[in-house]
Specification:
Layout (H helix, E strand, L loop, with lengths): L2 H9 L13 E7 L2 E7 L3 E8 L5 E6 H8 L6 E5 L2 E6 L2 E6 L17 E3 L3 H8 L14 E7 L2 E7 L3 E8 L5 E5 H10 L3 E4 L2 E6 L2 E6 L18 E5 H12 L9 E7 L2 E8 L2 E8 L6 E6 H9 L5 E6 L6 E4 L3 E5 L4
Antiparallel strand pairs: 1-2, 1-4, 2-3, 3-15, 5-6, 6-7, 8-13, 9-10, 9-12, 10-11, 11-23, 13-14, 14-15, 16-21, 17-18, 17-20, 18-19, 21-22, 22-23
């Protein structure tokens, strides 16, 4: 990791619109040839370290501004002058107003105590991220729930309309709701070590991240998964092409829906928006004739989450649920009535 990467990674945790101005800054500490960069909002804090020849100093400056400055630098030099930090590379020179280093909250307090989770857990979190809430009024849904029991670690993501679940073998105790934006940072930076306790601590050489947990009890979505003999088999390539056609009609995008009717081995897919209509037809395997209506965007995410070419949809009626079960991966959502 070089200095530009270290700054960019740490700055990604700084808040862009916080009512607390100090949370929009990045704390810099240079000591004995090593530089440390720390940024934090209320849910995620990141610290990066890198060996770099610079004088000893400490301060806080605007995180976004520092990232932009680094974009113009190859080998910057640093110097404190009165209340400003001087950053220079060749003839390019910036004088940036500082905030006292002591004003920064630093890393979210945590400890090394907790369950060490295998790095493979990042994969199952990545698999459910698409369904996790971000601005749900049910605050516990604005994160991914990691829960270990009976030798299995399961990651849940839901916005109350859809839910995704991924599981992996794990002998340990974990019960934590990790904020969705924190999960996005974990997926992006791929830490080598994850320790789940009251917080989630993530580390790799030169990188440390602490994710605050969301308080609350996560819903038991397994109750919505009911056995059904109605299994519809479709090819991902076929249904994906149809969804692309339906997406053209998405006006407004967040409210557009599509209807799927199937009979005699064929599925008719249609969407009507603003007086315009699109239809498509694909082959399917289904034991009965029926239909359901869904949000186009949700169904698109649902299909995209599958890796296999053949997708089995378990159908429980027009007003209940539809889901796919792939052993250690389940996707579930409630179609529109």
């Amino acid at each position: 990791m070089n200095i530009k990467e270290a700054i960019h990674i740490a700055a990604s945790a700084a808040s862009g619109k916080s009512t607390l101005p100090i949370l929009t800054t990045i704390a810099i500490k240079s000591e004995l040839g090593r530089m440390e960069f720390t940024a934090s909002d209320t849910q995620v804090s990141i610290r990066t370290t890198v060996d770099y020849d610079a004088p000893d100093f400490s301060c806080c400056i605007d995180a976004r501004r520092l990232v932009s400055i680094m974009g113009l630098m190859d080998k910057p030099t640093f110097k404190i002058s009165d209340s400003n930090l001087l950053i220079r590379d060749g003839k390019t020179r910036f004088s940036v107003q500082m905030v006292p280093f002591e004003n920064h909250p630093g890393m979210i307090p945590t400890s090394d105590t907790g369950s060490v989770i295998p790095k493979d857990a990042i994969k199952i979190m990545s698999g459910v991220r698409y369904a996790a809430g971000k601005n749900s009024p049910r605050h516990m849904l604005n994160g991914i729930f990691l829960h270990a029991e009976n030798g299995t670690l399961t990651a849940y993501g839901s916005d109350s309309i859809r839910v995704a679940m991924r599981s992996m073998p794990f002998d340990g105790t974990v019960k934590i709701i990790v904020p969705t934006n924190a999960v996005e940072q974990i997926i992006k930076h791929q830490p080598d070590e994850l320790i789940a306790g009251r917080m989630l601590l993530c580390r790799k050489p030169g990188f440390e991240m602490v994710c605050a947990a969301i308080d609350g009890s996560y819903p038991d979505f397994k109750r919505a998964i009911k056995p059904s003999s109605t299994i519809i088999t479709v090819k991902k390539s076929d249904i994906s092409r149809s969804i692309k056609a339906m997406n053209i009609m998405r006006i407004p995008a967040d409210m557009s829906r599509m209807r799927l009717d199937w009979e005699s081995g064929l599925m008719k897919i249609s969407s009507t928006q603003g007086g315009s209509e699109v239809e498509d037809e694909i082959p399917v395997s289904a034991p009965i004739d029926s239909y359901f209506s869904v949000n186009i965007g949700y169904f698109s995410d649902f299909i995209d989450s599958h890796d296999s070419e053949e997708i089995d949809l378990v159908f429980n009626g027009q007003t209940t649920t539809i889901y796919s079960d792939r052993g250690n991966a389940i996707d579930l959502f409630v179609p529109l009535k």
